[in-house]
Amino acid sequence: MVPRPAGLAALGWRFVLTTGTGSLFGFLVARQAYQSALLAPLFIVWFGFGLLPTVVMTALICFFPLLENTLTGLDRVDPAKRELFRMLRAGRWRTLTRLKIPSGLPVILAGLRVAVVLALAAVGLVLARGTVGAVD
């Protein structure tokens, strides 16, 4: 019998691999919808008290805006330029590095700016209150 967390992880990866990135993005949107504070007790159980659960929680809070803006920036490419790269028989890697990343860089950097603000807010909360699971 597979333990529950491992089984759920395997089921999640199978779902992602069979249905594509749209489903993964939907899962991440659903994950962002509930409060991150609901995960704090689980992180205390999994990682113990101290700095590690705080770092993991901050990473989870900052991950979604960065991912969302990166995917949006990579999708927002001028169709004429994309067609030009197709006509020039540019491969996927060359299209990504020479077209999609440079044209999506402003949106990606906006997501990075939001993630940095969220991380600084989380660090400020930790410094003001203590680490996740700290006892007064």
What do you see in this structure?
It is elongated, with a radius of gyration of 19 Å. It is an all-alpha fold and 136 residues long. It has helices spanning 4-19, 21-33, 40-47, 51-75, 79-87, 92-129. The chain contains 6 helices and no strands.
| Low-pLDDT stretches | 10-20
- What is the number of E strands? 0
Give the % helix: over 70%
- Classification by helices and strands: mainly alpha
Strand content: under 5%
Largest sheet, in brief, is: none
Mean pLDDT: 75
Radius of gyration: 19 Å
- H-E string: HHHHHH
**Discrete helix count:** 6
State the end-to-end distance: 41 Å
- Overall, the morphology is elongated
Keyword list:
mainly alpha; 80% helix; 136 residues
List the helices and strands and how they pair.
Blueprint: H1 4-19, H2 21-33, H3 40-47, H4 51-75, H5 79-87, H6 92-129
Helix pairs in contact: 1-2, 3-4, 4-6
In short, what is this structure?
With 136 residues, this protein is mainly α.
